[in-house]
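tool_call predict_complex ligand=pyridoxal-5'-phosphate
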Amino acid sequence: MTLNLLPMANQDLQFQVTRNENAKSPEEREAILANPGFGQHFTDHMVDICWSEKGGWHRPRVQPYGPIQLDPAAAVLHYAQEIFEGLKAYRHADGSIWTFRPEANAARMQRSAKRLAMPELPTEYFLDSLKQLIAVDGDWVPTQDETSLYLRPFAFAKEAFLGVRPAKKVNYYLIASPAGAYFTGGVTPVSIWLSTSYARAAHGGTGAAKTGGNYAASLLPQAEAYENGCAQVLFLDSQEGRYLEELGGMNLILVRKDGTLLTPASDSILEGITRDSILQLAKDRGHAVEQRPIAYDEWREGVASGDIVEAFACGTAAVVTPIAEIKTADDRGIVMPEVEDRLAMSLREELTGIQYGRVEDRHGWLYRLDA
Ligand SMILES: *Cc1c(COP(=O)(O)O)cnc(C)c1O
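tool_result ok
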């Protein structure tokens, strides 16, 4: 099947900017930024770009943040044709505002779009949307250590039509939400629940796309994890229930005694930019990296024999979260050894150092948003 979803060539990207007359006052904004939490507060503006089969991407706008008008028959509400991204804007010591590898997010959003039979937003439009929002809402990027402005691009099927086919009308949006330091008072390793009754994504399914449906499918197992005193859920492959995949929203990395990093390869996991960056930093330090199918039992036996010494989850929101133990419904749990100097934390330090402009950006990963 060929879908005519390619961007229109040489269309001018002129954003129409409408200022929010009811924007928060500087005092209100500062009060929020003093303790922003995560995902609870939103900036004064949002970006909106329309797509239609006939007109391609058009009408790029920056407008006041607020509710979206949706026809009750909008396809997304029925068939979940939706994709999203997540990245952060970081304030450097000199006040400048940067983001991290946004081209990788743009490319991933294009891959997600392809899988969900949606139009691909060109990278240039994606990058421009970030800059346009920062141009009006730059004051929302917090200044304290380890804080950031979380950027949430997303797109969904807006066409009012109950037939089942790719929508002919789609909208792209970008909203932003200030985020506090994830770990206050030191990093605490977490307990993870191994889901044996549910899979997150199936072979040939949408696991490699960043789409809301994958999250919807993870909520029930995630609730099971909470009931069992765990912070997160770990999924295995859907076919054999043997191989490691990932957590609900974070990738998994194991560390061997000899310093080798192990991470699952699978067509049904979401390839994180955090994971890719951490593996690169480890390679730069001379660590070996193995990306291949890894059985849950290999992890368990590796810990028992002393060969596997660390395990951690990684993703944009928390960056790195060390894993203390895996709990299971049977007796196949794993208790990770206590570690003094975690490689995970040292890599986290280096990665956040680059993001906040404290460590040299050897790979050209930073992208300036306020210039
Ligand atoms: C977004 C996401 C990740 C992490 O990706 P990053 O690019 O590192 O933020 C991992 N798993 C899932 C399911 C995700 O949606």
